[in-house]
Amino acid sequence: MNKQTYSYAGMFTTALRLVAGWTYFSAFWRRLILENKMDPDTAGYIGEKFNHFLPNALGIKPMIEFLVSNPEWLWWAMLAFTIIEGIVGLLFMLGILTRLMSIGVFSLAFGILLGSGWLGTTCLDEWQIGVLGVAAGFTIFMTGGGKFSVDELLARKGYKFTDHKLFRFFGSGVLPIKERILPKIVLTGSLLILGLTLFTNQYFHGGVYGTLHNLSVKPHVTISDSRIDQNTLSFEVFRDEGADVYGSFLIGVKLYDENQNIVYELDQNQLANLNPSQIKNDYVAKVKPGKHSLILPLGARATLSLVDTSLATLQGKYKLELLDISGVTWTSEITTH
To answer: Which of 33, 166, 151 is nearest to 92 (CA)?
Structure first.
């Protein structure tokens, strides 16, 4: 294929390049220009949003957990990620080193897909963003920037470096790949991306076969390490499902004996006034007292320690029950000796 063919191919995909580029540049624009979402002490901190990815991320959960467990590392990672999104998005729109930037778009979209492809309350929002970004990155890599790109403007002006093999591989113009194998690369790449799309659609949402599910619809809390030690009831809560923009609101804690009698209880007002010293948070998304309840954001994990003299006399088997404002309950068994 000649230069004109690639020029037209890139021209036809201009809208895709501009829109995909803006989706990444706009992340930088929103977080650092329109608002400051890099301040850990303000609502909307991007690190807390990143924490929301943790519960059901695919393959990169250990990396996310390390970062949200180490706030100072997380801040630098979020700053670097935001700057990279801004640079990649802007250069992609302008068509500067278009193919190199398309690799960046592909990589960013792939990371978003693995981290947050399970999120989306009404539509499969993050999954769609991820798979379409991967497809856009691959497509623009094959076409280059085309007529409406800085790459081609430089080539038309006759700059010698635009004829170099490396420029054509990382910028625009005729790909330095033998023409007879190009169709194989396009078909193989397209089928692999389709396979990734179907696999992640099924993994996150059951969207290919079986029962559909959406982990973003209803809040879910996992209770672990429940114990009664002298006069203290302690247990770990991990909010691992539900909407990322809406917390789980805990309005009741009850402890039942084997005869289903309540032996210990906290209501929503007591939980709303819980002393922060009784909450040990592990991540940047924090379990904390709210106005009318105890708030459990998505991805938050914390150990609660509830102290009462009546707990010191308990022996035997008990059931711990947590009540969400929606009416959903979660339980855990406790045995004391």
So the answer is: 151
For residues 137 and 109, the answer to whether their CB atoms sit within 8 Å is: yes
Same domain, 226 and 190: no
pLDDT in tens, 104-125: 999 999 999 999 999 988 888 8
- Domain count for the chain, please give it: 2
Q: Structure tokens of 160? A: 């010698």
Chain segment 14-24, per-residue pLDDT in tens = 999 999 999 99
Asked whether residue 314 carries a pLDDT value surpassing 80, the answer given is: yes
Please name every residue paired with 28 in a beta bridge, in sequence order, or none if there are none: none
The span from the CA of 23 to the CA of 20, in Å, is 5
- Exposure string over 175-205, b if 16+ CB within 10 A, otherwise e: beeeeeeeeeeeeeeeeebeebbeebbeebb
Burial 127-145 (b: 16+ CB within 10 A, else e): bebbbbbbbbbbbbbbbbb
Domain containing 321 equals 220-336
At residue 234, the 3 state secondary structure works out as: strand
Is 115 in the same domain as 238?
no
Same domain, 154 and 50: yes
Tokens (6 digits) for 297 = 């954001």
Task: State the Cα–Cα distance between residues 172 and 174, nearest whole angstrom.
Answer: 7
Residues 248 and 179 in one domain: no
Which of 179, 205, 231 is a domain's end point? 205
